[in-house]
Amino acid sequence: MSRQFLLHDVQQAAAALREAQISLSLAIKQAYPLGTKIIAKIGERKLTVCVTGYGANWSSPGVLIGDNVSTGKSRRFNHTAIIQTDEEESEPCDMR
After folding, report:
1. Are 63 and 55 in contact (CB under 8 A)?
2. Region 3-85: CATH code
3. Burial of 42 (0-12, 13-18, 19+ CB in 10 A)
């Protein structure tokens, strides 16, 4: 394989990665819009968190930012920590 051919493979892989990062970010934003209350396992605890933002799609595409509903403390967590949306909550999040 020539060096030029390998560089082309690297460029294609990088483009595919960028596309996947953007797709993941968009899917998370659609699934968990700002103000959504979710239950997430953060550390050793299950917390109810209000989604207030998202990680950058180029550096942390699977990250959500939210406020702990009980304490008001801001938390960053990966989408894999989400257990469920808190649909039983009748009150929407306070999005100051």
Report:
1. yes
2. 2.30.30.140
3. middle
Rounded Cα distance, 93 and 53, in Å = 13
What pLDDT score was predicted for residue 91? 65
Is beta strand 82-85 parallel, antiparallel or unpaired with respect to 74-78? unpaired
pLDDT for 69-86, tens place per residue?
999 999 999 999 999 987
Q: What one-letter code names the amino acid at 58?
A: W
pTM confidence score: 0.82
Half-sphere exposure of 79 (CA within 13 A, CB side): 17
Please give the Cα distance from 87 to 82 (Å, whole number): 13
